[in-house]
Design a protein that fits this description.
alpha+beta; Aminopeptidase; Barwin-like endoglucanases; 16-stranded mixed sheet; 16 strands; about 30% helix; elongated; arginine N-succinyltransferase activity; Acyl_CoA_acyltransferase; EC 2.3.1.109; Arg_succinylTrfase_AstA/AruG
Length: about 350
């Protein structure tokens, strides 16, 4: 059974393994000991921060581990409100018209405009599931456990939730979109720029990034072709978010041109359709699958398991091993989402 829980410093080696296996373009998991250690420390601080009434500088990082072997299968995270301490940049795609009635010319062109429009929003991030664990409901659990957390503890998150999707790059980490920027404005390759951003050294972005809008039709054909497109390995994650109600509102990543998708937290399908139930612990023969989390924040736990839910009494029967994984007792409450 895969169990989601807050990360701890003892998970450093596992997180480092995830960082290595995630490959190029995974900005939030750079292979850097200081950054990974700082992320764990900050997450521990955030989960234990008392009296949180609104989203702030908190960053929540969780791991999924196998309940039998204790091996870490992957990680997943949420930033409560981005951009307050470290600027968050993105490009917005807008449309303008160049028209001359006298000449009978009417050209529609698109622009990339540099900005910080997601400041203060909650970001779902750092979702990575190791290849050998990519089966069953594991991927859904790693992604949707964050929405169960938001549904149970809404005061900790912004009304707008977004995700940056990994853009197109090759096996060596070369991005067609960045290649054009590099040739015209920067003198460093994509892998280094992505790494510097991941470790928090973003000053070069503001220093070197063009401040005026960029006409997309002036970019190379290769760069134009990947704007708003995702990496092949990211397509399942994007599909999952689209089914949740996330959509791209013409914002893309400034490095690889990958799409940014967003949704009002109240309209996220897993938030809307999740529900609470009172727990009884017993063996049962139900064949219905659910994603289930406890109602604790500091000791958050989530699993995918069979459960016997009775809508009339708003109660659920959970097997003893599931209750143990969730750290709950009979009479406790859980939040559930049918699969």
């Amino acid at each position: 059974m895969l169990v989601i829980r807050p990360i701890s410093m003892s998970d450093y080696d596992a997180l480092h393994t995830c960082a290595v296996e995630s490959g190029h373009g995974f900005t939030s998991l750079p292979v850097n000991e200081e950054l990974l250690t700082n992320r764990i420390t900050h997450s521990e601080y955030s989960f234990n921060k008392p009296n949180v009434t609104q989203p702030g500088d908190e960053g929540y990082l969780m791991v999924g581990f196998d309940s039998d072997s204790s091996e870490v299968a992957g990680c997943t995270g949420v930033e409560a409100a981005i951009g307050w301490d470290v600027p968050f940049y993105s490009y917005h795609i807008s449309t303008i018209v160049h028209s001359s009635p006298k000449l009978g010319v009417n050209n529609i062109v698109k622009l990339l405009t540099f900005g910080n429009n997601y400041t203060g929003c909650s970001e779902i991030c750092t979702l990575f599931l190791r290849e050998k664990f990519r089966g069953g409901l594991n991927g859904r659990l790693m992604s949707k456990c964050r929405f169960l957390m938001m549904a149970e503890h809404p005061h900790r998150f912004s009304n707008t939730v977004f995700a940056e999707m990994r853009g197109v790059s090759d096996d060596e980490g070369n991005s067609p979109f960045w290649q054009w920027l590099q040739e015209n404005f920067f003198s460093i390759d994509f892998t280094l720029a992505d790494y510097l951003t991941g470790i928090g050294k973003k000053g070069f972005i503001a220093d070197l990034m063009p401040k005026l809008p960029i006409y997309i039709n002036l970019l190379s054909k290769e760069a134009q072709a990947v704007i708003g497109k995702v990496h092949e390995n990211t397509k399942p994650a994007l599909s999952l978010l689209e089914k949740e109600g996330f959509t791209c509102r013409n914002y893309v990543d400034i490095f690889d041109g990958g799409p940014t998708v967003e949704c009002d937290v109240r309209n996220i399908e897993s938030v809307r359709h999740s529900f609470r139930a009172k727990v009884a612990i017993s063996e049962h023969s139900s064949c219905n699958d659910y994603l289930i989390c406890n109602t604790s924040f500091e000791h958050f736990r989530a699993v995918a398991a069979k459960a016997a839910y009775d809508q009339a009494t708003e109660s659920v029967i959970l097997a003893p091993d599931v209750a143990k994984a969730l750290q709950i007792e009979s009479g406790s409450y859980v939040r559930m989402l049918a699969q």
